[in-house]
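Annual report, structural modelling task.

Input specification for the zinc ion complex:
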Amino acid sequence: MKKHEVIPKIIPEKDRPRCTIPGCTKSGAAFGYYQKDGTPLFRKYCHKHVAIKYGTNGWDYKIYRKDYCENIDGRLGFNCTTNIIEPELQLDADHIDGNPLNNDPKNIQTLCKCCHAIKTNQSQDYLTLGRRSLKKQMGGNELIERCI
Ligand SMILES: [Zn+2]
Ligand SMILES: [Zn+2]
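The model returned the following structure:
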């Protein structure tokens, strides 16, 4: 038998430690490490709050996302009538000026998927390079500003 063989235990979601952010009911994200008896280690925060904390997965600007589509005021030239049931699935944080790196709160508006699709088409956001390729190509913010 190998000395350090650890058989990972599966902990059901409901038995995992909770995210410590007040009001969050999700379980802590798994670290990917195990104790000697195979018990997995969990973070103090759920996946979403880990991402917010470290500003990854787009959460550097998604924190400004509201829980409704802001186009209910008709800012895109028509009024949104989408029924929001699952904000997490239906709502996007949109960069108003189309610059994916301008994370100024004033440049972020919340749009449902329907309105977002129309806005993207209207303003031709797709003509600017995507967030990922921009970051990859240019590196620092200074350079990126010049290329837009
Ligand atoms: Zn959480
Ligand atoms: Zn909408």
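Residues 33 and 103 are 34 Å apart (CA to CA).
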